[in-house]
Design a protein that fits this description.
homotrimer; about 260 residues; alpha/beta; TIM Barrel; eight-stranded parallel beta sheet; 11 helices; ComA_synth (chains A, B, C); ComA_synth_sf (chains A, B, C)
Chain lengths: ~260, ~260, ~260
């Protein structure tokens, strides 16, 4: 930090199990990746190459080298896993992870219907090769999963070997955990938390109001995902109570009363 | 491409007559232009320097050199043409195109009222000097042009020598082809397509839902425009059925059924 | 400018007292700062490091050097002032301004309740050390300040030594001067202008429709703030009547009539 401020919430530091930030790279150039890493390497714990953007982005090898040199693990978006699976190319996918030396992999079923036992089998298999993040929730805004089902899916995926589970929101933040307006399905979130430990969940929360909701509910060290590269610094200020939205949240009432 | 996937829609390759992507540069710096070209040169067929941004962007010569070296033609937004015309400076505009060695020019009347025969005369004149893109539709969200009128304007402008016609949407995607909410005027689009060949039209579609609409209606190789630089990679994944929105669109039902 | 156009509104030039543009940097990397300066140094009069982003952005010294070399003064967002004040660290804040050789400072009370005489006392004190910008308006969209109160607050802060006063809007443009939809509280703006000279006010106007409103109401040389780095070139075209939104605003009716 560039200077000293008292009364800040205690933040976890790398390697983080909670207070974890997952950023989404949806096609940065090499120099943009360097710019991102310069600003964010302290604050970003893992980078997702969004959905199948890794298929069309040139210079994938060099991009991975930049993230590797900055100590930030990278994984392919779950949609890419689904693209290989639906084509019967799972073995190709496994080879791809090895070829690019990826230590994390996401397993999801957001764009397809998949038998859940089959999904868990893929989790078990890939967990022998990588650290698995599994995602729950559909990208289809018409498909509403009731809370008890979210919980049983998450628990089964953790049992199958997922390191953490991700709550779906897309890049836009208007499906899965959120209503089509972007509003948090807060009853769903609270019910999930009665059963699943909060450090096992990464909440996709691309919109600022969503990030603020989770930080107010669960504290500075909630795990958040799908953060755009240029929103990493702003998010860190929200976690620390240094942006208007959470400014008074971490302060004692006595401190505020002295000014009026 | 970085790896192999089966069952992808066939994409056209450069120089493209259909499957064409027009990107909008609204003031990139030189290094940002280089970043853009690094990521997008395979996927971008032409770049528009949005409206009159070329007037205030420094280093215009060097920017044009970067695009030229990447093999991507550049043209000035139609609003700049209108700015010269309304000031009686058409001859200055012609000299400007020559000075910057631009091989494409846009002719539009989105911000002004112009007699259509006069517009067609400008198309005929500029078509002797450059390849002309002409734009139909108003930037004024109160000005609704009925479908039969869109068709007759487009046909007259193609007859006057326009290489392709552009359907207006602005940078924001909320006029012309679209309602003020951004929703596609789908009846308009379908009626236009009964008369004008689809490869002669570039649909401005800056919003993701708009791109998805046109790709589902007209396939991977529809011509799209006003794409922001950082949305070029995402658009290419939508064209290829590798993003949630079009994921199942290009697949056989049998492939999907095997997973449930 | 890259070429000549007649009939443009006269723009002020640096150092500007009116026609002033304040940009918001919310965490640019060093190279992104260089890119920004390359494009915008003619058009940006001052840069705000948004709220407390300067706390978490690395390389703060080097970033300030880049802006200094480009002749663009920098100041810390008002939320940072509030963060120091609420912690009883005002003297630390004064030392911080000296340490980074900042010639401007913002004083605000957007995230806290502060006695107005106390706020004016801070303005008087900091005005001995720097040029003070003071901000009126709350970041809380529930807190509506009536027009007469805006005027008396602004006047008192100018009397206390503020160089200019800023009308609050946040990065998002949906509080203070604006309704939660982003719509301008135009009656408020007009009433303020009956009492406070327009060159003493910087209107935060991050959204394009807001910039257009102020330029149509107050001309090309209105002072605007909270402009995103990649919107500086577009804003300059709006000021000059070279974008659709203000295209006809600065032209004589006779010029337009000649085309129909």
């Amino acid at each position: 930090m560039n200077y000293e401020l008292t009364h800040l919430p205690q933040r976890t530091s790398k390697p983080r199990d909670s207070g974890f930030t997952m950023a989404m790279d949806k096609g940065l150039s090499l120099r943009e990746t360097e710019n991102f890493v310069e600003v964010a390497s302290e604050y970003v714990d893992i980078v997702k190459l969004g959905w199948a953007t890794s298929f069309v982005t040139p210079n994938l090898d060099q991009k991975l080298d930049i993230y590797r040199a900055a100590g930030i693990p990278v994984y392919f978006g779950g949609t890419l896993f689904e693209a290989f699976i639906v084509r019967g190319q799972f073995e190709d996918y496994r080879r791809l992870l090895d070829k690019y030396k990826l230590q994390f992999a996401e397993i999801s079923d957001g764009s397809i219907e998949m038998d859940h036992e089959l999904k868990c089998k893929y989790i078990r298999t890939l967990a022998e090769q990588t650290t698995v993040l599994s995602e729950v929730g559909s990208k289809d805004d018409q498909k509403i999963i009731p809370p008890y089902k979210w919980i049983s899916l998450m628990q089964a995926e953790l049992d199958a070997g997922a390191w953490k589970v991700i709550g779906e929101a897309r890049e836009s933040g208007n499906v899965g955990l959120f209503r089509s307006t972007g509003e948090v399905r807060s009853g769903l979130v609270e019910e999930i938390l009665t059963k699943i430990p909060f450090e096992k969940i990464i909440w996709e929360a691309p919109q600022k109001a969503q990030q603020v909701f989770f930080i107010k509910l669960l504290g500075a060290n909630v795990n958040l995902g799908n953060i755009a590269p240029n929103e990493i610094v702003p998010l860190e200020t929200i976690r620390l109570g240094l942006r208007g939205d959470t400014f008074t949240h971490f302060l004692d009432k006595g401190m505020l009363d002295k000014l009026v």
